Amino acid sequence: MRRILVGMHSIEDQILGNPNAGAILRTFFEDFVNGLLIADYKQLKTSNNPYRYRRHISAVAGDLLHNMEWRLAIARAYIEQGVVPPGTSVVTAEERVLTELDKIRQVFEDVGSFMERIESFRDRLERRVRMTVHYMDMVGEGAVERLARLIETLGALTAENVQIEFRAPDVGFPVTELALYVPSPPRGAPQKTRFKLPQPDPHLKAYMAAKTDFDTMVRVTPARLKGFIEEKIADRLQIRSCEIAIESIEDLFAYRALPAGVFGGSKDLGPYRVVLEDGRTDNPWIDVPAFRIERIVAEGPAPC
Asked: What does the alpha-carbon distance between residue 230 and residue 239 come to, in Å, rounded to a whole number?
């Protein structure tokens, strides 16, 4: 949009600095219409341009900016996907999320004022060109002068040299009853019908049940993590992330959530502790930071 505005200013300078009316029109149509209006300005109006959805994008960015739960989820996703440097705390990641969301909202809120400036400049430029064309018609040979010159030329010719062709033969058109006005027939009363209540969708119940099952499958709770750890660690004191086998989608979500909330090197889940290690663990399902799970052993009483 800044490029379009700068291009319009450049074209206006060329038009104002050129005394030749023909060159002004050539600059307008070649540089402005073909090079700028069609190539760049029209692109802003296409269906896949974000400008068409600026209000929706700004509203979504504002909602994310003021929802602490969503901000925290995005910050954790930044850490999981490596958007921020390794070892970045969730507070630092959330600050980056806030900065980017505020920038997105500010950009799309400023689009409207930019577009108003472009529209105003385009109208002013087109008015200047219209005045130029009108001025060319006034200072040049207008329609009245051309018609007067044509009459003078015809008056100087003899009758034998003048051949005038009529546009239509000098005959009258037939007038019959088909040419008379016929009013439209009156509309009949609408047919009475009984209103029927829409029937419930027979698949709605199954859809809701499937949606509930899916939400249950992807939701990771502390109890679910604890059960996953107990199943995998069995009677061992510790287990590394590369030794954990993922056998289902439920295992995948639990496995992915284990290193996600580890800040400061470790976190406790009941009688177990998740500790981050150097490197990453890559298996056929997912690539996550390497970690190990330790069983927290209660210390005995201190000796007397």
From this structure: 11
Cα three-residue angle 269-270-272, rounded to 5 degrees:
65
Q: Among the three residues 145, 168, 195, which one is the final residue of a domain in this structure?
A: 145
Total-model pTM = 0.34
**Contact status, residue 40 vs residue 3, Cβ threshold 8 Å:** yes
Q: Which residue in this structure is represented by tokens 């600059």?
A: 27
In a domain, 159, yes or no: no
Instruction: Return the top range by mean pLDDT from 70-74, 83-87, 250-254.
Output: 70-74
For residue 134, being part of any structural domain is answered with yes
> What local confidence, expressed as pLDDT, does residue 151 receive?
82
Contact by Cβ (8 Å): 267, 273: yes
**Does 181 map to a domain?**
no
Determine the length of the chain: 304
Classified as helix, coil or strand, 38 is: helix
Residues spanned by the domain of 256: 219-295
Do 132 and 251 lie in a common domain? no
Please give the structure tokens belonging to residue 5.
Answer: 């505005």
Please state, in angstroms and rounded to a whole number, the distance separating the CA atoms of residues 164 and 151.
13
Q: Please give the mean pLDDT across all residues of the chain.
A: 76
Q: Which position has the higher pLDDT, 164 or 157?
A: 157
Query: Do 31 and 127 fall into the same domain?
Result: yes
What's the structural domain count of the chain?
2
Q: What is the DSSP string of 163-218?
A: ----SS-S-PPP--GGGS--PPPPPPPPPP----PPPPPTTHHHHHHHHHHHHHHH
Q: Specify whether the CB–CB gap between 62 and 56 falls below 8 A.
A: no
From CA 36, how far away is CA 5, in angstroms rounded? 10
Last residue of a domain, one of 145, 160, 190: 145
- Render pLDDT for 13-45 as a digit per residue (tens, 0 to 9): 766 666 666 666 666 666 666 666 655 666 666
Rounded Cα distance between 265 and 274, Å, is: 8
Q: Is residue 204 included in any domain, yes or no?
A: no
